[in-house]
Design goal:
By secondary structure, the protein is of the alpha+beta class. The chain has 6 helices and 9 strands. This is PH domain-containing protein.
Length: 212
């Protein structure tokens, strides 16, 4: 987590760590700028310098700026307070006081499992896992443990059920269980088997059933 993002003791909930994502995004931005310059120079041979700069900027800026802004995105937990920072805004939700907790599944070639919580004013979404046909990526153990503990501090039944699911995920990881035994992957299988694509919200009963 970048310095200044959160207080000491906070836990990153980034599914893909910034240390892995940032170099790739910088390369994308650099390639976009390089392509824009090359095209601009080429256009400059046939038109005015102003038109060449304009064409180069149109090609380079959208991708480069988008990549650099994406590097600002962070999700972290400080105590029971969940924080997110996107390219243009920051939001926070006290998980112990949430009024809604949902498990969202986006089922496709690359499937996503997301936790969505809200306090009646703000909604925050946390990616929990990504799966492909050959494997996947899940939140790290410390992140799952901290999120499960925060959800357990709530008096909301769906939040407690989600805490149980994350604890079940931790136990499956600890024993080296295959994907089919992991609650988060079961959520994807449930959605796909029921034909609820490309996106669905699991019912409270379905969430409870993920740990059966």
């Amino acid at each position: 987590m970048a310095k200044g993002d959160a207080a000491a003791g906070s836990v990153s909930l980034d599914l893909i760590p910034a240390s892995l994502l940032a170099p790739r995004l910088r390369r994308v931005a650099a390639v976009a700028v390089g392509l824009g310059v090359l095209v601009g120079v080429g256009v400059g041979f046939f038109t005015s310098a102003g038109m060449a700069v304009l064409v180069g900027a149109v090609i380079a800026l959208p991708t480069a700026v988008s990549s650099l802004l994406t590097m600002r995105r962070r999700i972290w937990l400080a105590g029971n307070v969940l924080h997110t920072r996107t390219a243009v805004r920051s939001r926070s939700v006290d998980i112990s006081a949430v009024v809604s907790t949902e498990l969202v599944v986006r089922a496709a070639r690359v499937s996503q499992v997301l936790l969505r919580v809200g306090d009646g004013r703000t909604l925050v979404t946390v990616p929990l896992a990504l799966y492909t046909e050959s494997g996947g990526r899940e939140l790290e153990v410390l992140a799952l443990r901290s999120l499960a503990d925060a959800l357990a501090s709530s008096e909301l039944a769906p939040a407690l059920a989600m805490s149980t699911v994350l604890v079940g995920q931790l136990r499956a990881e600890a024993r080296g269980a295959g994907l089919e035994e992991r609650p988060l992957y079961r959520a994807v299988r449930l959605a796909k088997d029921a034909g609820r694509v490309p996106q669905t919200v699991l019912t409270d009963q379905e969430v409870v059933g993920l740990t059966d």
